[in-house]
Amino acid sequence: MKGISHPALDDISLENVCQALTDPVRIEIVGRLAKMSEATCSVLNAGRPKSSMSHHYRVLRDSGLICTRTRGTTHFNALRRAELDARFPGLLDALLKAMAVDADGEAKYEASPRSSTIPI
Amino acid sequence: MKGISHPALDDISLENVCQALTDPVRIEIVGRLAKMSEATCSVLNAGRPKSSMSHHYRVLRDSGLICTRTRGTTHFNALRRAELDARFPGLLDALLKAMAVDADGEAKYEASPRSSTIPI
């Protein structure tokens, strides 16, 4: 794929996978891709600036978590689920479950904030 | 514990756990602690400078991966295995398995390096 490279299975390291998941935007992208076969950048960007999002896709690709294919000028992204499962059995599932726990915690926090304003 | 704090279970995030595992020294510490109930810093440091190692223990503690107790001037470190299992079921086991895969790959690589020197 012109200009877009993906690491070979044996070159995917835990260190790089973890590095990719140190950012909430990248965690969100992985979580969303887990629910669909593939998605375009414009869908995943959800209105965020293309310039900063490009960096996130590159980090995710370099880690081995996602792959990107192009058709014309459109990029389609997908989780490298089968390959990750082969490389690190059980890891992706455990990470996705952990993301759900974190997201659930954040939803609860937003529903009942610890600090509240006094109603006028 | 004087001067040593640990995050509460609900404050352990996937992002911080991943951040802690972006460094090979910290990955090694977690991998070693998985094989023992607890270990002193001097055992885990394995001759590396105490000054740089202190940072690694702090990052690991702040992520929720390890806890540290003191007795006199000695620090004893342990994985927060039960708590992590409660917070993110299956994650620690999957991470430890992934570490073993990576370590196995490195061992194979060292046994048969891709580049070799020409014997004189």
Quick take:
Chain A has 120 residues and is mainly α. Chain A is built from six helices and three strands.
What does it look like?
- Chains A, B: Residues 6-99 form the HTH arsR-type domain.
- Chains A, B: InterPro entries: ArsR-like_HTH (IPR011991), HTH_ArsR_DNA-bd_dom (IPR001845), WH-like_DNA-bd_sf (IPR036388), WH_DNA-bd_sf (IPR036390).
- Chains A, B: It comes from Sphingomonas xinjiangensis.
- Chains A, B: One of its GO terms (molecular function) is DNA binding.
- Chains A, B: This is DNA-binding transcriptional ArsR family regulator.
- Chain A is mainly alpha-helical.
- Chain A has one domain: Winged helix-like DNA-binding domain superfamily/Winged helix DNA-binding domain (Arc Repressor Mutant, subunit A, Orthogonal Bundle).
- Helices cover 53% and strands 12% of the residues of chain A.
- Chain A has 6 helices and 3 strands.
- In chain A, strands 1-3-2 form a 3-stranded antiparallel beta sheet.
- In chain A, helix 1 (14-20) packs antiparallel against helix 4 (50-63).
- Chain A is globular, with a radius of gyration of 16 Å.
- Chain A binds chain B through residues 10, 13-15, 17-24, 27, 87-91, 93-95, 97-99, 101-102, 105, and chain B through 10, 13-15, 17-24, 27, 87-91, 93-95, 97-99, 101-102, 105.
